[in-house]
Model the fold of this input.
Amino acid sequence: MTREEIINKVLNIFKEEFEIENPGLDDDLREVHEFDSIDAIELLREIEYFLDTELTQDEKKDAMEIRTINDICDYIMSLAKEDCGV
Amino acid sequence: MHRRVVITAGSAITPIGHLKKEIVYSLENGVSGVKKLRSDNLLSAYIHSDVFGTVDYEVEFDFTRKYRKTMGPVAFYACQVAKEVLEQSGLKQEFITSGRLGVAFGSTHGSPTVQREIYKNFFSGSKTKYASIGAVDYLKSMVHTTAVNITKMFGISGRVISSSTACTTSSQSIGFGYEMVKFGLQDAMLCGGADEYDTTTVAVFDNLLACSTGFNDTPHRTPRPFDADRDGLVVGEGAGAVLLEEYESAKKRGAIILAEIIGFGCNNNGGDLILPNVNGITQTLRIGLQDAGVRPEDVDFISAHATATKMGDVIEAKAIHAIYGEKSPYVTGLKGYMGHTMGSCGVIETLLTLYMMEQGFIAPTLNLENIDDRCAMIRHTTKLIEHPIRIATIQNFAFGGVNTCLIIKKFE
Done:
C-alpha cells in the first residue's frame, strides 16, 4: 500500500468516524481539532480494522506519541513493514 | 448562614410532553403518556406487564461528536434538559464556568442500553469483541454519566452530586442542591434526573409482582393511583432539570423567579428495602414541614408518590392523614399520567406542580375512578379544579427505604 493510499484512508476515517474534514497533514490534532485520549483509543481500533491485525500493548503505547496525520501514516507504514518482516 | 433558594428555570422531557404548554395541555385534558411496551428482543417477551410511560415523540438533539462520544441515551436526555434550563435561565457563560454553579443530577442505572452492549461483548466468547470494550463505553454507561456529561458540555466546575437512589434520585438532587445553595456552598445548582427507555427496571418490578398487568390492552387506563382497581406500577422514561439560585443574586440579575424552595425532608426507613414504612414516611413529611417552617394547614397541594401498588398507596395515604388530619390539602398522584419515571420522577413532578402553581389549577389523579376505602381518608383531586397553590409538597419514596419531601412556595 502506498503512502498516498494510507493518507486517503486515514482522512476518510477522520471524516466518517471523527467528523473532522480535511485536517492539515501537519495539524496538531489535539490543539487544532480537540482530538483527545478517547479519540486516540478509537483511532487505534480503526487502524486494527484497517490492517486486519491486533496491536500489541507496546505498539499501542508507541501510538501515544502521535500528534499529526503524517505521524499516523508513519505509524501505519512502520506497522505494515513489521508485518512484512522488513 | 441560611440563604433563600429560588427556582429560575425548568425543563422536562416527559411521556406527556416536552414543552410547558404540551404538559399543561395533557394535565388539563387527562392525556396519558402510557403506551404499549416496545419490544427489546431480550426481556420484553418474558415480562407480564406490557405497558410503559413512553416519550413517543421526536426530541431533536443537536450535540456535536465531541460531546456525543461519551453519551448514552440517558445522557442525551440529561444534557438536553440541562441545555434548555441554562438557556432559559439567562445565566452568563462566565458564571456557568466560574465554579459557583454546581450540578446535582442522577439516574437509576446510568445507561442500561450501553451496559447491555458491554455485557454482550463480555459474554460473547470472542476475544475481538472483548477487546473492543473501551473507556468510552464505561463513560457512556456509568452511574454518574448524566451529571458529568452536563459538566463537560457546559464547562461547569462547581460541586457534583450524582445521587442514584432510584425513585428518589432527582428529588434528592433538588434537595441536596437546595442545601448547597442554602448553606452557601454554591451560588447556583443545576438539579434533576433522567432515565432512558429500559426494560431491565420493568423486569425487576415485574418479578416482584409489582407491575400493572391488567390493562395491557388499554395502556392509558393504568397506573391507577389510589384507585380500588389499581394493580401495580408502570415504569416510564423521562428527564427533568431545574436551576436553583441564591435569591438575592437571582433578584439582582433580574432573573425570572418561578418559585422558592423552602424545605427538604430526607430520611431512611432503616429497615426493609422494599416495603414502604408508614412511620418512616410520616417522619419524612414531618421533617420537610419543619425544615420549611410551615404548618400542615399551610399546604395547599401534595404531589403524592403514589405508584399505584397495592400497599404503597395505602401506606402513603396513612402517612398523609397522620400529618394533615381530616383537612388534608388536595392530593394528586401525577404518575397516573406518565407512569413512574423512576430517577426523573421527583424533578418532573416538581415541575408539573410548578406549572399548576403558575396556571392556578390542580390536575386530578388520572384513572382514579373509585377511591380505595383504605386511601379515602385524604382529600383526593378527582377532577380538574381551579385552585391556587401557594405552598406545595412533592413526596417520593424509593427502594432501600429512602424517603424525600420537597416543599415549594409560590414566589410573590
The mean pLDDT of chain A is 89. The first helix of chain A runs from residue 3 to 16. The radius of gyration of chain A is 12 Å. Residues 11 and 22 of chain A are 7 Å apart (CA to CA).
